[in-house]
């Protein structure tokens, strides 16, 4: 969402800094409702960073349900125009930052140009978030939000200029892979000829696993492939535990 509201033609409808508490502005309340309904709301913080009267974010960037994006340069310095936090009730904003100074973009005529503003940094994050949602549809918006923030380079020392910093979406992709797998039900069965078959998620055709007996001894290790039978006839009948290492999950099997 590349927009922000503060001043209106009718001054009576304008917002002041005291209104930026995430609960007052109508659009901020809307962002909160959207997030609660399962939508991931990415917004620009605004371009008021050089203002002497109001260098702060605008609505709906003040909402808890809004993932607010500031701007940095290609050398990872804060863009001077990037609006800053905190919210009026002293919550951290922006959430993260991305390049919004001299950002490459393509015009409607197909020309490659550059532009500056948080209206350019927010779409970079939006595109990456959209890819994560497509890759991991069972992960919640809150899990994505928290993981993106935790991946950022300023996570340990956040501030109201950079927020948590510049995210590492490669790391986020790997972490969400584990989170999604931990929440999935793993269907499996053993047929009458002692063939073990497991049904894995679509984007995980195989997982690394180990098979343990009740003495805690590893009797097999290798790759379990989706819906490909694993012959268990070489093992004595009894109770065994499959430990799926890629998912940190265990499955009890009896044959």
From TrEMBL:
Give a yes or no for keyword Glycosyltransferase in this entry: no
State a single Gene Ontology molecular function.
serine-type endopeptidase activity
Please list the GO biological process terms of this entry.
Answer: proteolysis
Fetch the Pfam families from UniProt: Peptidase_S8
- Boundaries of each Peptidase S8/S53 domain copy? 19-165
State whether keyword Metal-binding applies: no
Q: Which UniProt keywords apply?
A: Hydrolase, Protease, Serine protease, Signal
What the record says about family reads: Belongs to the peptidase S8 family.
| Protein name, per record | Subtilisin-like serine proteases
Q: Which organism is this entry from?
A: Nonlabens ulvanivorans (Persicivirga ulvanivorans)
What does the record give as the organism's lineage?
Bacteria, Pseudomonadati, Bacteroidota, Flavobacteriia, Flavobacteriales
């Amino acid at each position: 969402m590349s927009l922000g509201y503060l001043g209106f033609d009718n001054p009576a409808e304008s917002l002041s800094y005291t209104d930026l508490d995430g609960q007052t502005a109508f659009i901020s309340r809307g962002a909160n409702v959207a997030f609660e309904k399962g939508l991931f709301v990415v917004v620009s913080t605004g371009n008021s960073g050089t203002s002497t009267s109001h260098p702060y974010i605008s609505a709906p960037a003040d909402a808890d349900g809004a993932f607010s994006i500031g701007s940095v340069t290609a050398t990872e310095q804060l863009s001077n125009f990037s609006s800053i936090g905190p919210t009026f009730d002293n919550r951290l904003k922006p959430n993260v930052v991305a390049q919004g100074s001299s950002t490459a973009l393509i015009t409607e005529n197909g020309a490659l140009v550059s532009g500056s503003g948080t209206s350019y940094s927010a779409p970079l994050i939006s595109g990456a978030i959209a890819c994560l949602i497509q890759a991991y549809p069972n992960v919640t918006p809150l899990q994505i939000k928290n993981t993106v923030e935790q991946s950022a380079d300023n996570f340990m020392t956040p501030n109201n200029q950079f927020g948590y910093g510049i995210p590492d979406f490669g790391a986020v992709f790997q972490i969400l892979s584990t989170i999604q797998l931990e929440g999935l039900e793993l269907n499996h069965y053993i047929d009458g000829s002692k063939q073990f078959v497991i049904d894995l998620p679509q984007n995980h055709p195989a997982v690394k696993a180990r098979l343990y007996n009740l003495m805690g001894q590893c009797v097999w290790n290798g790759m379990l492939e989706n819906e490909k039978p694993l012959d268990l006839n070489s093992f004595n009948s009894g109770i065994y535990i499959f430990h799926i290492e890629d998912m940190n999950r265990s499955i009890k099997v009896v044959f």
